[in-house]
Amino acid sequence: MLAAERRDHLIGLLARQGKIVAKEVAVELGISEDSVRRDLRDLAAEGLCQRVYGGALPVSPAVVDYAARQGVAPDGKRKVASVAAALVRPGSALILDGGTTALAVAHALPRDLACTVITHSPTIAVALLDHPQAELFLLGGRVFKHSAVACGAAAVEAAQNISADLCLLGVTGVHPEAGLTTADAEEAAMKRALAARAADTYILASSEKIGTASRYRVLPWEEVSGLITDADPHDAVVEQLEAHGVEILAAG
Prior knowledge:
The chain is an alpha/beta fold. The chain has helices at about 5-15, 20-30, 35-45, 65-70, 75-85, 100-110, 120-125, 155-160, 185-195, 235-245; strands at about 20, 50, 55, 95, 115-120, 135-140, 140-145, 150, 165-170, 175, 180, 200-205, 215-220, 225-230, 250. It has a 7-stranded parallel sheet, sandwiched between helices. A 3-stranded antiparallel sheet has the order 1-3-2. It is elongated and about 65 Å long. The mean pLDDT is about 90.
């Protein structure tokens, strides 16, 4: 099989099965695992897959810059945001992550809701300035422009001194095996710091993130309360997550 044919075959496998196991592909095609790994390196360099131990997973489309992400699945994000906003109780304290889905949550919060919102995202803070009864706490640090959030040591230290009833956290990848992932190591560390300070943590994930992976793990499934998604309840990944005990809040 020619290199171009192998490339098409691997892309097709990702689309059909949601993963590639290098050893299985090598046996199927009668080639070495090294050849498969080289092909996967090439695909990863083109942004067409996320390499993991033993093979590859579909790459998340949510790794483009902040401005571009605002145009990705806006309807799905609004549906997820509506369900997430309903979890915020009057008088409660909310940690709201940055990113475009979290921004949709900020817009979905009732304007007259009395609550405390803690965030490391300047865009979230600005979006809530016209909520007269929402008290705002903005955590500072080095601004990671890709997601318009504060990250780094100063931001993590600030996060360690707060506590909340609920954390609504965004990720770029949601996968049963790879877990909850994002594309930047410092951002992943900040997300862990935020989640650790809340009684409950729910993951915000519109359907295009389901079954995909990015490079850095944020949290294992055991450390989150549930997943809010507009993905089809009969999606194979969603069903697999439910089978593993993950609470799914449908936003269809």
